[in-house]
């Protein structure tokens, strides 16, 4: 049975990625596309790579007819999301891709985002969208808040290791190498090709990256005690992909075994043989996560490497996976894409 | 009904691209994968981006069991192809992706490839694989020879203009900007990232590019008289895509109209509105061709721009499209992929 | 003897490139740097790659002390240049890098730039800055207008062929592949890394590119009759470089000979052996032009290939070369940089 | 006074980089260039970006006339270096760019390189080429062994912190993001543009990277006790640059202060203000090192970021800096290049 969906914020990269994925979905049909500045345009003008598709014209939120819609994907910018979602009909299922509803504690939100939350009731309702760890909650949810793409990458590496016996919870360093599409389509000087393409640099250093709020929340919850990782992202001159190195103290073999067991039944998460490492080029454009573990010399230390595509498994693929659960569809529908290599 | 296929030369880029496409095909099943140097390896070792798939191990040609196979994709290097294909059981349908069987006249083959052809009977049997122009022949064929990727790009631009009334057949210049994956996985110094990534250059200049043999053959056939284009490719520091500019003398509006009519019913070929130009980023990873026409100032001259993905529509996508026809399947099965952008 | 210079528009790419070149100049000293939006900032904040240098702070034009300055480089945006230069003290030598003073005929300016020129007297005074063709005029000039970077690339290829005997002046096609830094540091969606880096496309097609005004002016002047080329640029996903293919009707050997003779004494222009083609990677970051000629099959047609770095020989290197002449210095001072490869 | 030098291994990237730098050196003249496979060729055939220079033809080692040579740069592959250098006239000064003579202890060499050293006497004589830490030894040396490019990047970050009071010497993690030119011009599948350009991955994980031998040697020597870092490099799809993050336990302000003091008088090493981070794009093509320090949240942890160009400061620039000292020339001669940005 076909389900109708609408996408708010369809003129950004995560909106376009949703459309790409849903194009191959047997049971989901897009009936409305929202945008603000670009309302009134055909999608072919905004994203010419979609020009072969029959898609609704972009509309302002208030013009959209949501009467027959079952689920809304909200790919709006941060802050905008918490303004718009409360205005949606309350029977609608919603998958939000913004950062607005990821943190459960309003105080945490205020700490990391610098302002009070404007939709506290919705915030309470939101289920954190890391599918493999909240699957049953998501299946039952009306409202799911997608994770940060960096957060997802780190959480896949670390969540199964939080029992207190496998690694030293006081000593976790996350070093991520991040492609540029995660920054979206915003007009910023440092995102220009001429600025970016021949160099790389760390950013949001010093414990300032907002995804730390998600790491704190989820890792502490899993550990049953406060866990605070040190996280540094580096912007890499390429478009798609996140590669994370989690430096931990623990036995590599035990860590590899724990990760292998945890993900044995997960279709989209693959743990490589011990000692093999993943590459972003091998998951590009797909909903896959590749995880590898390497032992450091001397013993007692290990590195957990993880790779995913920030636009797919890190945001829009995750969103569709969650929508499938919420709509009672096969969880992998529309998501069985082979990575694009080369 | 499922059809079994084998891929010879599965360790190269076109082999991997076939696997990517067939992964989403409802009616085709891969039962054997051939390779030479890499025989004995799992595909996950040769192409880690395919590691989530259950694929046969790579085998030498002589070890492969082709008993239940309906069709073989031959993605072997040039020259090797004409040695191997004659050894295949003669009831097998074959789609060849090499250059070996594209030219009908043995003398032409010898001119462009510098040696006599080693399988003249097969050469006679081969149908040229430009689907939109040889569809019925391909449907009836046992053996189809895939086109060159540059040849396909130029032929889509020019074949509908060959009636002698639309453009000056004596004055056609083809300038193509070509991504590097077309050169394959060969170990050549000029294909190293450090060599290639920050510069671009023309190659095979001076009428020496072998795809000229295909242009001569197909354009002359369509025109009913000899047509010899001038063709210069430039290697662009990016992986996938061919962008062609065909500089012709003729009326842009009439040319646009002829192209629009010719491709109106073609699912994979889209003619943009007059004056709009295509970009390789908008067809990347898909089986689409985008064609645009621009009028030059002063009138009397026009440029026909065409873009396709050399690994998809330019080789493996075309091969699958042809295989679908040869097997009596829906022509677009497995080929409805949305381009990957960004 | 040291000469003092100021740079207006120092926060853009051509401004930074001037500083890079002058850093190695024995006789030129930068005493003032102008900017508008970024006035008040240190250059290290605007261009951290210059942080090791002792440079003046950025100032608004009206704050700059030009008393001891001998020459001003004006790297302002188009239109701004014609507003600012008339306000400079009239004894100052000026090298303008904008498009404002390249066209001698006010009607041509209005045609290509869509508005009347605001500084007609200065326009009359301006010497066109293509050094190798206006050397003596430049040496004597107070005011030099730098050429367009595409214009320079094409003119190096074509100007020595304009005598009417070597090539058919009615049939010249210029196809250029252009790096992205030529578009400057402007915040435009299509210049973002995520938009640009994996694709390429033609732009300003249909005889609309403004550098056509320069081609018309200079080629017609050299030929002594109207010459109108057809020019299509393609934006390549890389930062520096222009590669031009000029498709002409004429004898390749004669063309090669004419170019070789014309540039035999020119230090920065090198004509490669007949049949060899240039690459942008081999002139990157230098003031060099590489020119190659290839014969097309069948005879009677040839391609003149030229490569230069748009930021160096195409703008700031040319500007410094001209300033050297205007100040009575060695023409190559500060310009003997070896290309950066890889 | 001019000094004559020869370069062995001139057909590789470090050889070409030496030529680029020496081209701007007032007192060094290249009289002979050695190569093996490419002996007999002109440099313009091997490196067309050097075609404007008058350079000696490539010769086999045994054909080279070293009679008038003062110093030899040896840019040969590892292992070859220890075979060739002992055959050179013993009065010649030598700067080796290979890995063969970096480790003082023959047992260490055997551990990291898997075979006994073939030139133990020379090994004893070699001075480790990290200029800022061995300046006086280098000035007096006949034979200097250049450092690894990753080793240099990490040592600049860490050597001034080894006194035992500033950071926890048991807990140092080095995560480096490395451009591809460091892998040289070798024909390896994983260095092809099509393989590399759209993804990134860690390599030599698990304490296997050979530069660990250098880290162990130099950090332990500076600390006066064994220090073993954990080091993971990630290959980034870009040509030049190394960006290192050293994760340490210690006070960021004290660390920043120690680094600032240590490098205050060093021309090529710049410590950024506390909290600012370097980028490879800002040192590209130059001999500069940029170092930044960021405090991690919670206190007690800091990250030392360092960026340098692997081909310049990481190898050939360092080699020339050392040669300048060995020849009694100004240490910075030929090395005052401004980074190339964009």
Question: How would you sum up this structure in a few lines?
Answer:
The structure is a homotetramer of 342-residue chains. The two termini of chain A are 36 Å apart.
Largest sheet of chain A: 7 strands, parallel
State the end-to-end CA separation of chain A.
36 Å
Helix/sheet category of chain A: alpha/beta
Kindly report the greatest chain-chain contact and the residue count on each side. Answer: A-D, 51 and 51 residues
So what's the oligomer here? homotetramer
How big is the Rg of chain A? 19 Å
How many helical elements of chain A?
Answer: 11
CATH fold-level assignment of the largest domain in chain A: Dihydrodipicolinate Reductase, domain 2
Structure commentary:
The structure is a homotetramer of 342-residue chains. With 342 residues, chain A is α/β, with parallel strands linked by helices. In chain A, strand 4, helix 3 and strand 5 form a beta-alpha-beta unit. In chain A, helix 1 packs across helix 11 and helix 6 packs parallel to helix 11. Chain A is globular and about 65 Å long. Chains A and B meet through helix 1 of A and helix 1 of B.
Features:
homotetramer; alpha/beta; Rossmann fold; Dihydrodipicolinate Reductase, domain 2; 2 domains; 7-stranded parallel β-sheet; 7-stranded mixed β-sheet; 11 helices; 28% helix; 20% strand
